[in-house]
Amino acid sequence: xxxxxxxxxxxxxxxxxxxxxxxxxxxxxxxxxxxxxxxxxxxxxxxxxxxxxxxxxxxxxxxxxxxxxxxxxxxxxxxxxxxxxxxxxxxxxxxxxxxxxxxxxxxxxxxxxxxxxxxxxxxxxxxxxxxxxxxxxxxxxxxxxxxxxxxxxxxxxxxxxxxxxxxxxxxxxxxxxxxxxxxxxxxxxxxxxxxxxxxxxxxxxxxxxxxxxxxxxxxxxxxxxxxxxxxxxxxxxxxxxxxxxxxxxxxxxxxxxxxxxxxxxxxxxxxxxxxxxxxxxxxxxxxxxxxxxxxxxxxxxxxxxxxxxxxxxxxxxxxxxxxxxxxxxxxxxxxxxxxxxxxxxxxxxxxxxxxxxxxxxxxxxx
Length: 366
Known about the structure:
By secondary structure, this protein is of the alpha+beta class.
């Protein structure tokens, strides 16, 4: 290689290589780290960055790859988060972060590199290769990465970045119309089964589908008209293999008691079984949410209603409660939210009919 300056060489492949001393070996020899670029100016800039980093970042940390830091962060997470959260973080790291950044030195990451990574995910990030990921999905990926970066900054003194989170549009969430609610409820009452009763229960309590599948008969207090939410059922992915897991609800605020209308309790009484059995399955093993989702969609088809997700029942419950005058604090506790602002921002939707009613009140006061 031809020498082009202080520790800068022109390689046979046409690239410039710059070598920066970063410490010493056990035998006392100088240890170097190389940087590469296609122009002399670029390699000098990279060397300046490395010189600057050498004075602030421990030598051992400079060598750590993104994969090594991710592994350590996941080990720390396992001690403080639920299994489902850990599985989600692991999936994001394995499928989205490591394929592009895994072998990169963590200390070499810059804001520009991470902004480029984000742009790539938005345009070509789908695992099936068919286009980019949604801004919401990319935000979820980068939220995990930000926690990993904070860990690296805290533990190894690695310099943090200031990458730009993609902007997401807040869409108005859909709910069932009053006509759809009446039609669905009429069908459920006319075709009673444990599935019908379970859907009816969700229409009047706002239970999440995992909470419904995790409900046992012992959790229903028929005397006082209450249900206790104590567990949830979900399918989680562990390193490419999925499994059903019964665990605690989404958060500590999700562990709650919900009053149930008496007519719903009367319907449930018809199907009551041993207290230790799960309500939906009628056995000592729960029905998984995906099965319940499919049953719900089948009922929608029989009702000639549009195809919607089971979670829409929860959105609809919240909106109906607001229309009936529930205060947001009460509704927030019924839904199991940690903060009333979550209830307002995500689940409360003002219909055009409701807006017209409010406007009419203004005219009456004129």
